[in-house]
User: What shape does this take?
Amino acid sequence: MKKVEPITWLFVLLSLPLILLLTLPLLKMTLEPSWAMLLETICDKEVLAAMGRSIGTALSASFFAFIFGTPLAYLLARKNIFGKKIIEGIIDLPIMIPHPVVGIAILSLAGRNHPIGRFLSEVGIQIMGTKTGIILVLLFVGLPFYINTVKAGFESIPVRLEKASRTLGAGAFSTFVRVTFPLTWRHMILGIIMCTARAISEFGAVVIVAYHPMTAPVMIYERFTAYGLKYSQPIAVWLILISFILFIFLRLFSKSVNNYG
Amino acid sequence: MIKLDKISLSFPNFSLDNICLDIEKKDFFALIGPTGSGKSLLLEAMTGLIPVNKGKIFLKNKDITDLPVEKRNIALVYQDFALFPHLNVTQNILYGISYHKIPKKTAQDRFAMLINTLGLEKITKRSIQNLSGGEKQRISLARSLILNPSVLLLDEPLSALDPIFHEDAKELLKKIHKDLEITTIMVSHNFPDVLYLANRGAIIKDGRIMQKGKIEDIFEKPNSNFTAKFVGMKNIFPFSENNSKLFIKDNNKIEIMADHTPGANHKNIGIRPEDISFIDKRGNTFENAFNGIIDKISSSGIYLNIAAISQGIKFDIIWPRSYIRNYELKIGKKIAFGFPSEVVHTF
Assistant: This one.
């Protein structure tokens, strides 16, 4: 049998409390509601709508991250654009700042007191208390996860492949479609999964911008404050399950990305 | 064929300055210089991947300075081959076909000819992962050559290959150039490769052309200390002239006879180490003959690098390994050596 180094035992010992910290509370909460309660919860139309809304808005935010974030990630990975470090810092900001602050910031911009808010209102776009508002804050908090993942993907592709494509007659756009995209789409999927997973769990920013229509995290909070732990737990269990499935996907994809090339 | 007229390129820490080159049709031209001298940058400038700050680039007498990369039809084969990892061998080779309006039949014929010439018949359906360096290089060449480019640029084509593929690849490049008669520009820092493949070339140092012309001339008649050392001319001695006789400076005892009168601006004598012969008892004679003592012997594979001291001057010599056995060479042994006047180069 292969001998295990003492340092490996030490590292296992130090890792154990962390794994317990992550698993015990979640396990306790997941196992507490009865099957009947879980089934009843998932059959509740309001819960289903909130779940659907959470998933739908999170996927929409990821879609916008893909459309607008991919070009930005490419520029940051490939070009020496002016103020690159500052832009990278700004992109990372949503990871650091408290999320209710994000909600307040967006609300102050989208309110009637701000020209942008007035303009949006005039063209029929409402932020406060709408799905649009939810998608906007989810995009805000999820964007760093998408951009950083995809940027790393672009950086992992040797620039010489793109140069070789150009010398073979392909234009810049054609090179992106035929070389860059096929080699980075896995990173984009990975970014979408990370962005979606982050967005599904968002509470702080969403609750400021749109208490209604309710997303799953807001509903958990609402049920907890109104009816107590027993009624909020089953929704939380379903949310954990969905997030868990997403992260399993994430790990599988990250494995295939690492194995590529 | 391709002409660079006073090309300048500048980056924060490096610049190419006033580069003038005129590469003829069917030339095998070598850009030679140490790492970081700007050779590869110059290749990318020719393709248009890097825009030039000043000067003009002409291809077949047409100004292509502002022409986009994809319109130039100048092929570039990178040192690491830059094959597309998501495409198989055939897909890699055919990548550029759709951009060049090549009729299907012509493309098929060229494909068949190239995979035959380059020995790729058995791997056309394979993924490019796990292929050898030699195979990857041949695929990269086929991918460029199928487009019938005006000029083929090779960026250090032999340096990334294992030694076992090196000689084969060298032969292949020679054959491709001969058979397809394609104007080829190769970047290299290996002078023996250049000497074998190229007919003309230029030496670059710190972004400037130091010398250009026929490869044999660069090899045998370098015009500067840098070029002389770079092409392996190890015996470089400043000289003084006295009554039309050349003496090694700082010594003034050793007279060197050359078959020509040095130019007015010439300050150095250069003798290639392989041009110095062993003088045995049978007494082969040279205009320049010296007695000396072996100071150092080191081996570089099949050759010996010998340092021999004569009247305080060190001569670097390259002789075959068999000399050790034939002439019982060892450190401290007294020997005689010499060279004819025609191998004495002044610059």
Observations:
- Chain A touches chain B at residues 158, 160-161, 163-171, 174, 178-179, 182-183, 260-261 (CB under 8 Å).
